[in-house]
Amino acid sequence: MLELGEKIHVYSGTANTELAQEIADYLGLPLAEANIQRFPDGETYCQYEENIRRSDVFIIQPTCAPTNDNLMELLIMIDTARRASAARITAVIPFYGYARQDRKDKPRVPLTAKLVANLLTQAGANRIVAVDLHAHQIQGFFDIPLDHLYCGPVLIPYLKEKLGSETVVVAPDTGGVKMAQGYAERLNASLAIVAKHRISATEVEASHLVGDVAGKKCVLVDDMTSTCGTLISAANLLKKNGATEIYAAVSHCLLNEKGRQRLKDSCINELVTTNNVPVTDDCDGMVKVLSMAPVLGETIRRIHDGESVSDLFKY
């Protein structure tokens, strides 16, 4: 555990104060006080209540909904720490918003994942801690160190206990094959892949299944879900092909009202996720939330102490 005399300050934005408090508790530190307010016109104000000159500052803030407000708040907190002469500023971003726009797949579209990386760097961040980025290449968008963590160490032990043997890990689309393969290896499970066709931004259709799921428990793994379209379309295909029970493991649960209703009406038995973003509705007990605080807290401790964090990069 850290000693209070060391020059470290852990701050929280307003996006996920419960997770930040859990991280501070893990470190044995009080959560440092920041006065964050909104002006009547919507502008954000930040003031740190203590001297942080030459301190190691960690700012915990996922850029989940409301995305623009939380992102701007994070940028302002970083800028405030820089102007207060912090020795090092690490932005701990349990969920990195705008990550889905990481490539130009159409003419005249933005690369917002790179834009956000530029904004964080220009604001004054010296280091980034991110969790389960939507695309691994986003790490290359930064010219400052980035530690990329995974939710696997938190989700996999629960899944092992819940599912037992005869389990199939399923990638709900071809883009999630690498992630699903990592889970399958650590669960000692077989692998299946669903091919999907996107109809619109919120509607998808699962068209083909590669792998045998008949008579087996299945777990769909993905990095995020908001409308549950991809998961439920894949789950319906698995049920049609004889799966007995269907679970979903998602790093970032961003369910909106439509997604929550879809989940309640679906054939999915349980959705397992983390508290990287606040989960305010457990959908009548269908959502199981596990804490990332020990992983994030240990990462902060190792960064501050100058120790290796590479062991924490593994599933």
Task: List the quaternary state of the chains.
Answer: single chain
Largest sheet: 7 strands, mixed
The name of the CATH architecture of the largest domain is 3-Layer(aba) Sandwich
Helix content: 25-40%
Question: Pairing-aware structural class of the strands and helices?
Answer: alpha/beta
CA radius of gyration: 20 Å
Cα distance, first to last residue? 24 Å
Strand content: 25-35%
Question: How many alpha or pi helices?
Answer: 8
Order of helices and strands: EHEEEHEHEEHEHEEEHEHEEH
Strands of the largest sheet, in order across it? 10-9-8-11-12-13-14
Tell me about this structure:
With 315 residues, the protein is an alpha/beta fold. It folds into 2 domains: 164 residues, Rossmann fold; 139 residues, Rossmann fold (3-Layer(aba) Sandwich). It is built from 8 helices and 14 strands. The strands form 3 sheets. Strands 10-9-8-11-12-13-14 form a 7-stranded mixed β-sheet, sandwiched between helices. The protein starts with 7 loop residues before the first strand and ends in a 10-residue tail after the last helix. The mean pLDDT is 93.
